[in-house]
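[Automated response] Your request has been received and processed.

Submitted sequence:
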Amino acid sequence: MSTLVALKNVAKSFKSADGSSRLVLEHVDFQLQEGEIVALLGQSGSGKSTLMRIMAGLIPADGGDVHYRSQPLFGPAEGIAMVFQSFALFPWLTVQQNVELGLEARGIAAAERERRAAAAIELIGLSGFEGALPRELSGGMRQRVGLARALVMEPAVLLMDEAFSALDVLTGERLRNEILELWGSGQMPTKAMLVVSHNIEEAVLMADRVLVFSSNPGRVRAELPITLPRPRHPDSPEVRLLIDEVYSLMTAGATPAQAEPVRPHLSDRLPEADVGHMESLLELLADEQFKGRADLPQLAEESELTDEDLLPLAGALQRLGLATLAHGDLLISPLGQCYVDGDHEFRREIFGQQLLAHVPLAAFIRHSLEQEANGQLREEPFLKLLRESMDEQEAERVLQVAIEWARYGEVFEYDFHTGMIHLPEAGE
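Generated structure:
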């Protein structure tokens, strides 16, 4: 097999709002070979989409080498096309015009544009809708237009960035299966695909290789070859075993949270986990069905949570010492069992204690408030500290997670009208 895209020691940084540099990718080594589908999995914010845009030539790498067909890549390559999560269609253009757009930008003659666009539209199952506007189409049909717009360029490499995640489950499955059928039939011009996804089952059903991306900064942390022939049945023992193995890779290296000195760890990105969902998951884990230990794929199915939701919840429970992750399983801790057995007030007390012990940001905020005569501070100083190691949006998200957890654990309160963080008042 020949190498289509090769990345060697690739790095990328972005400037934060305060002008500081934030490292997003570091030491990324990756090769995409002709004839393969590769799936890339990782947590939100790990740099997967940034990596894909570098491969597409849409943004440059700050360090390392990027090659397409053994030639350095310095901008968009004619042989690489990308499908986005958001459809990215022009609402004032018809289906036919949206599909022709890239060809027009390359100066292709009108007759040839029309011929190639019609062929792509037919290939992707949109014949009869050439004159429709995007607003007249369903979400699945709009994504088909995005796919046709990519395929009309006859790319050797197709990059799909969460291409199915904005669709409902059945529509996403149908479109994914049709793409795999086209791939298997040889009707697609594409020689290789890279699929960024949050869905572990989707990755296992599609890919010849699954790559697990680490975070802060992003890099390839693990790789799992998949040799099962396609089509693959999601309920087959072989597929379920592979899904379980990917879960294990996604949680590998996770160890029980340990108490840390009370100081802000500004690179510490708290998982986006709602307290109510954390409690529900812990209660399910402690239920008679699981008896305190659950296989993550089985837990996802029983809880009806997506992988994107389940993994942060499991990570948050581990962070707070209420559960542990091991070999793709989630185990309730003795403290977690006490938590489940306790009443509402007891749970809030445990939650607050664990938050102060295991989340340095929350402990730092609480300590800072205790030093103030009036027991309150504006949120801005804490956001400024967080922006030293993350961008504005991520800093706001992390602080809001800390505030949500702290309010439940009665560690501190927050006034949404004034942006003031303050110590709980007696009786709150």
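Summary generated for your ticket: The CA atoms of residues 67 and 155 lie 16 Å apart. Residues 254-264 have pLDDT under 50 and may be disordered.
If you did not submit this request, please reply to this message.
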